[in-house]
Amino acid sequence: MLHSLLSTSPAGSAWAIALWTIVIGCLCAIPASLVGSFLVLRRMSLLGDAISHAVLPGVAIAFLISGEISGVPIFIGAILTAILTAFLTRTVAASGVVNEQAGLGVVFTSLFAIGVLLISRAAQNIDLDPGCVLYGAIEFVPLETVVLGSFELPRTAIPLGFTALLTIGFILAFFKELKITSFDAPLAESMGLSPRRMDFFLLLLTSFITVLSFEAVGSILVIVLLVAPACTALHLTDRLEIALPLAVLFGCLSSVLGYSGALSTNTSVAGMIAVASGFLFLISWIFAPKHGRFANLLRRFRLRLQIATDDLLAVIYRREESGRLLMNHGESVVISNGLLGWLTKNRAVRKGWLDSEVLATESRLQLTPKGREMAQSIVRGHRLWESFLHRDFQLAQDHLHEPAEIAEHFLGPDLQRELSDQLNTPGTDPHGQSIP
Amino acid sequence: MLNELIRYNTLVILAGTGLLGLVSGVVGTLTVLRRRALAGDALAHATLPGLCLAFLIVGERRLPALLLGAAITGLFGLFCVSVLARGTRIKDDSALALVLGVFFGAGIVLSRWIQNRTTDGSKAGLDSFLLGKTSGMILSDVLLIAAVSAIVLFLVVLLFKEFQITLFDSSFAQATGWPTASLDLLLMLLVGLVVVAGLPSVGVVLMTSLLVIPAAAARFWTDRFVNMTCISAIIGMLATVTGVILSTLFEDLPTGSLMTLAAAIVFVFSAFLAPCRGWIWRNNRRKAFAKSLDISK
Amino acid sequence: MNQSLAEMPTEMKHKRTDITAPPVLEVHDLTVAYREKPVLWHIDFAVTKPALVGIVGPNGAGKSTLIKAILGLLPVSSGTVEVFGRPLKKERLHVGYVPQRESVDWDFPIQVLDVVLMGTYGRLGWFRRPRETERKLARECLARMGLEGLESRQIGQLSGGQQQRVFLARALAQQADLYFMDEPMAGVDAATEHAIFQVLAELRDQGKTVVVVHHDLRSVPEKFDQLLLVNQRLIAYGPTSDVFTADLLRKTYGGRLAILEELAVALKVGRPTP
User: What is the C-alpha to C-alpha distance for residues A265 and B112, in angstroms, rounded to an integer?
Assistant: First the structure.
């Protein structure tokens, strides 16, 4: 099936064109998201941005000389200008007069301007116009084909596929070096792994990708494929080994979504790919399980709920300890009101810590045996911490309760045991109350 | 050819762009020293969807409405950058690149959408915002630029001391009671105003160059903030005026690129020749120093 | 007012009730947390009369954080700061500050005199520019720090010690009554350190209070009147002779920190499941 689809001439059926457009989008996205992950980690995203602008004059000059819109001369021209960009930026920044971001700004805008001028000069007699440079024309890429063996492929697919393989190969071969130089450049340097050399390779790959993706997604949108999938993936995981394939996945997903989005609205595929990858990032930014906004809020709320429950149990425990039937005013203040209060009691009942029968009257709340055990552990943590503070920091008695109130929620059994050992298993806290 | 230059239209255009260069030189100095040279870049790219949305809403090419739309999405883009860079694990450079690209992509999608809808296929002239076009500039455009320049220059002159202290040493400024966060916000608003005013003539892509290059070039000539601001303003004006003159000579070339190139030439010139900080001086000093070491041996 | 410290001398308590002279600086129950991880806990002290106060503690003990929190440069979880009996926000003109050297962009296009002039900005208020009076004052302050003739140098061209002295000159130009200095002796040469201490002593003799974050324990006993030992909590505060003891220093620097750290980790990652 796939074979028959692929072997049909790309220019032939609408199906084949759609498929090939997506394939080419993915072939741009795969190396871009891989290299982009490292650019993001090494805080070189803006260099990626700069290169994607600055290769323009190289492309234009090579085009003026060779008269071809693709091929080896364009490749060389672009790579030379990419290296020139990095070199010039470094030189400007090294003068110490202008900071790095400004240096970058000076270099890439100037080069881009030169590129635009050259192209406008040349545009009179050929089909290369600044608009195409800025946002590409992936729609037309499958129409231009070459025959390779029994396959008829879009011309661009071959170098793009080659770059994708090269990038994957490079990352597999130098994964260890890339990882350490990205994480701790001075350490890597001291171990003889030059971060500079890795920078240089990444730079070369970035320029490869930029040049080849040029026709398809345009110079400005390459930056989205470099940065967005990487940021999305890095939001979802803490491990580089997982982040890289995830980034590739998101890159490809972006091109699929972008293509179908553009198809249904009859708009620019490249623009839609950018929007789609931004959309994917937004989703991971909000909903990522660990680092997402939503998870952060939820975690904070859970902690508040836990603390409120602990407080509730401890208050009831103290009341029961003192043998009173009702809570005094100071104790009932501690109990949360409103939604949090309701959730707190609900949670305590659900966990089997609170006797649900007397739930209605707040001052008469009762602990279950299981709840009493839990409350005992909390109060024990509280009083142990008070003892610790009192002994080691010589805080006055009236200054002990507040910090212990915070600490008690974080003292698990292990810490409690250690504290107890350090304090030689005290029987009472500084206020004279027994430690359960 | 000289006649061409002193025609009324050309004078109008020269006044407008000259003023634009001046004011972007001033604001650019502040952003470069704030180490946010490329904030203007993100802002400029993020104006594109605003331009298109404004066109969709208004239904015709009315410049004030378009620029208002541009300002709104541009500043929203910058707001996104600061939210992303502050609240999450995304570093500020990635946030800048991300916002820049995604907003620009959205702008391209919208612009194609408009292109499909408008029957005459004129693209509503939105393409001219990409690389800038000065030839269509009329008196009302110049008045708009003049108004923006007046506001920006007035605020910068009025708050010069306040900007200086926050840019140089923000913790000291904060400790002595200056509202550093508000001043920072104001600076970004000023950048927004200038970028939007420059869109029709310089274009989205190269607006950054007017904000960065004159300021960076000016830094080579002086060690004082006041002087740097003035020199940067002059260089900015010089670059835009030269760009316009060149574009009247070569009509098919985009003005924005010519302005950028003019500024770049001034930069190269400054980086090499400026006294004390220029490359030639520094090189000579280094040689003299090496020589003095030899002699003392 | 909580009397948290056994070390607090009795005459201070009397001073505190004296309505005519409110304490120079009163910090009550200051707690600072960074992402739910506490950095400073319940700091409580009062400087009742003009003095040279040293803040001493190990690295990461929160010395700089303490100064920044007092000055309102960091969000504070709880606590109040009063200067001369009024909230610090209303007394900013009487408070001088010398930040750490790293807080500044040394490539900034600004000359030495302009930096010192910044000290007068607070008094000038919005929109007004420094005039000849302010320039004269700034030159005097530079001279006092022994920096005559350097006024039109770009700030980055000075040596580390000179830069630090420019910062001090700027603080002098503030003409404040209470100064906070964040490690002014860090990375300076011996001559500069001596000059700085001399100026600090002069300020104290003029009836001003200087609070200095300091890292070199050797110079503590002879230089500071009052000493504040801090390690996330206030370990001790009082006259240097009372506080600079082996026992208290050990409590500040060494010993049972392990459990504190463990708690900090627990606070950061969420609590262990019981």
Answer: 10
Q: How many CB atoms lie within 10 A of CB C272?
A: 12
User: What are residue C95's DSSP bridge partners?
Assistant: C178
> What SS3 class is residue A318?
helix
| More confident: A48 or A146 | A48
pLDDT mean across residues, chain A:
79
DSSP annotation string for B32-101? HHTT-TTHHHHHHHHHHHHHHHHHHHH-S--HHHHHHHHHHHHHHHHHHHHHHHHHSS--HHHHHHHHHH
Give the pLDDT score at C261: 52
Q: If we measure between CA atoms, which residue out of B271, B151, B260, B155 comes closest to residue B219?
A: B271
Which residues of chain C are within 8 Å of residue A377 when distances are taken between CB atoms? 274
Measured CA distances, A60 to A68, A70, A119, B33 (Å): 10, 11, 6, 34
Cβ separation of B100 and A49 shorter than 8 Å? yes
Which value does ipTM take for this structure? 0.90
Give contacts of C174 with chain B, Cβ < 8 Å. 176
Indicate the length of chain A as a whole number: 436
Instruction: Write the residue in A44, A116, A274 that is nearest to B257 by C-beta.
Output: A116
Residues of C in contact with B176 (CB under 8 A): 92, 95, 97, 121-122, 174
Residue-range domains of chain A with CATH:
2-288 (1.10.3470.10), 295-422 (1.10.10.10)
Containing structural domain, residue C100: 10-269
Size of interface B-C (CB pairs under 8 A): 81
Q: How many domains does chain C have?
A: 1
CA end-to-end distance (rounded Å), chain B: 64
pLDDT digits (tens, 9 = 90+) for B174-225: 888 899 889 999 999 999 999 999 888 888 878 899 999 999 999 999 989 9
The answer to whether A412 and C272 are in contact (CB under 8 A) is yes
Instruction: Domain of residue B65: give its range.
Output: 2-296
User: Alpha-carbon torsion A339, A344, A345, A350, what sign?
Assistant: positive
* C258 in any annotated domain: yes
A55 to chain B nearest CA, in Å?
15
> Cβ contacts (< 8 Å) between C104 and chain B: which residues?
168-169
Chains adjacent to A (≥3 CB pairs closer than 8 angstroms): B, C
The size of chain C, in residues, is: 274
Q: Scanning the structure block, which residue is given the tokens 């612009």?
A: B111
E strand or H helix at A75? helix A72-94
Q: Return the structure tokens found at B94.
A: 């990635």
Supply the DSSP symbol for B123: G
Helix (H) or strand (E) holding C53: strand C52-56
Q: C35 to chain A: which residues are within 8 Å by CB? A: none
* Structural domain count of chain B: 1
**CB within 8 Å of C121: residues ≥ 6 apart:** B161, B162, B165, B176, B178, C130
| Amino acid letter for position B228 | M
C-alpha–C-alpha distance, residues C204 and C52, integer Å? 6
Measured CA to CA, the distance from residue A106 to residue C226 in angstroms comes to: 53
Q: Is B167 on the interface with C (CB under 8 A)?
A: yes
Neighbours of B276 (CB within 10 A): 13
Residue whose C-alpha is closest to residue C74's, from B171, B148, A171: B171
pLDDT tens by residue, C100-149: 888 888 888 889 999 999 999 988 888 888 899 999 999 999 999 888 88
Q: Find, among C117, C143, C112, the residue nearest to C130 by Cα.
A: C117
- The CATH code of the domain that includes B123 is 1.10.3470.10
Q: pLDDT at residue B13 above 80?
A: yes
> How many CB atoms sit inside 10 A of residue A156's CB?
24
Contact of C76 with chain B, judged by CB distance below 8 Å, is answered with no
Give the span between the Cα atoms of B61 and C29, in whole angstroms: 61
